[in-house]
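**Folding the chain**
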Amino acid sequence: MIHPLIEDSGWFDKVRKKHQKPLSEIDTLLRGVVRFFNISNLFTEDTGVAGRNFRAELKVLRDTIYHLLGLIETVIPERYKNAFWFQKYAEQSLLSDHDRDRLRQNLIRQESPEQSLLLMYDTLVNIKVIIQGLLSADRVSYSEFKHLGDILERQMRENIYFGPFRKEIDPEFDRISNRMVSRAVRSISDRNERKVVSTLVLYLFRCLRFIGHINPNAYESVTLSVSLVILVLLNSEIRSIIEYIEGTGNRIENGDLRSLLDSIGFQMRMESKRVFRQELRNVLGGVTLARLKGKIEASQGILRNMIEQCILQIIKFYQPDIKGEEIFPGFVTRLEQSLKLRDDVYTLWRIVDILETNFKDRDKRRSIFEALRAYMMYFQSFTFRLLRHDDYEEFDRFFNKFLAISAERILEMDDEKFLHELHRFRIFLETTVKMVSQREELKDRQIDTEKIDAVISQFMPMYRELNQISSSGPSE
């Protein structure tokens, strides 16, 4: 006997109106979970699978499925959820094989979105238990990881209403969410050009939707795991967008537009390398939660800025007077980004210079070290995302080494090798300031040294008293 509430239909219409954001997140995470089983989407230098332990990856998936189940339980009305669990109990304890067959067949037919959602919920509950069993071992082989992914993907793709890849573009979630952008795209006179551009802009807005579900402010391991799964999805999506751009070459007659799209494709390729091959490289290899949070926060900022800049470039091609802040709240212009990058690198140079100059003075060394450490942590969170791809490695290498030094150890160091490395990094910072200052948008804009002094004073209260700053800073 099938519980009457399971056969009842129509409640999902109310859910759809009331829970748009959770439903969008469910769609995002279902996509992300499938893409997570493709190791080319993961942030690892080692693409080999023989002998590799996939336990860390499986823990991320476990956390994400817990979160997915919580989201689905939020959108299913309480009485229908209770009816579902009564059905599960009856299926296991009360029904004959024949009745159990009828009950399962009724659910698997998916004659309504209600049944599809309950079937997806049932699938994830089963997968959760399997993952818990696999994690009871010390090692998870690639074969176990892959076959679990095959089962999960097949179940998701067979879901009629909630299969995440059932439509190339899903009008329920995939839309151009800004009227000015939408009007600009609709105004393109050439039909083929309009189709190419509108599809590309839709893909970019879909990435912004995915990015919007990343929570960089949380320290909980479950929430950070969810963010990692979304970043894996974005790795896959951005590669697909780049491939789409490269495939449009013969479809667009407008040479200027082709050049613009080629430029956008190049930008996306470089920025995505910076995120997925540098910022998130080997991130599953046991980094602390605080460091993982910082990497997720920086990655979200880089990707959001990249996507918004790409959309703006496309729309400005048709409407040159449009401004980024008219499209995206909190949009940061290239000028603002360049000013912030130059100011922050210059500030970092000044503090490194002060530490190098006063390193032999043990009384001052610790307080300067702690000020530099605090500023570097700020720089990691808010400025790393603005660095060029080619500069990132040098910053990341020095930061990783420097931040691993404790305040106690710095007092014991009389290491000429460390001083040489500090000096080398200071020279690198000087060069970086000069290069940033040569950007077209910074022409005739001088560094505000009084502002820099005020920032340093916030991190280093003794700054005014030191009065030992090098008189010849990075020239512009």
Residues 179-327 form one domain. The chain has three domains: 4-157, 179-327, 334-466. The chain has 21 helices and no strands. The two ends are 80 Å apart (CA to CA).
